[in-house]
Amino acid sequence: MDKGLVFNIQRYSIHDGGGIRTIIFLKGCPLACPWCSNPESRKGVQPGSWQKNGRKETIGEWYDVDTLVDEAMKDEIFYRTSGGGVTLSGGEVLMQADFAAKLLEELHELGIHTAIETTGCFPVERLSKLLSHLNQILFDLKIMDEGTSKRVIGADVTTVKENFEAALAAEGVEVIPRIPLIPSYTDSRNNLLSIIQYLKQQGVSAVHLLPFHQYGSNKYDYLGWNYEMKDTPVLSKREISTIKALFESEGINASVDGLE
Fold this sequence. Notes:
Shape: globular
CATH architecture: Alpha-Beta Barrel
Strand order of the largest sheet: 5-1-2-6-7-8-9-10-11
Number of strands: 11
Oligomer: single chain
Distance between the termini: 40 Å
Radius of gyration: 18 Å
Structural class: alpha/beta
CATH topology: TIM Barrel
């Protein structure tokens, strides 16, 4: 595609990759995670709308590659001095794989550190288009049971694993597995042990844990959607520490992101 649909550009981020980063959020995601913190990104690659602060706002704006590169390069000095760069997020980046590949290629040729966040839920051919233009992949592993994954979020675990293993095999690409800790969905001992076993099989020795939060809950009100997680409490520090210890007892270093 000559243009990509972007619903947010976040500057000066210190998460989602190393250093100071610009995060470009691409619209469109086929999954239906009940805990999604960017519900405005879901469904197809087409502009949407919501009612925010009494005003109707459009969600998503079409950009060409050159315009987005120009936007990203405004912060080049911060990338250079902090070891940062540009991360493509979403939504699901692989839903706009052709556009993402072109954008990443341009940034990579300019010497900018590039990263994506992905769930690996599309056929691996889409990810393959991006790999030679990437320095880093932040890869979410959520629900490992095939039936539960399809029923709850709509992701095929076999496809997710194919993408994860292709990422690991890519030369010069750092892969960081990220485990969202979602009460009643991903935080069960059985699911976590399944993730641990899989990571050990792949020779992975470090993960990032992402505790559940309620930061995006107001977006469901803007969209007029029901948010079924609104009464779900966040995990306690003790619960998170217990999960961290479980990974580390199996020889996998676990860092916690977003725990204040």
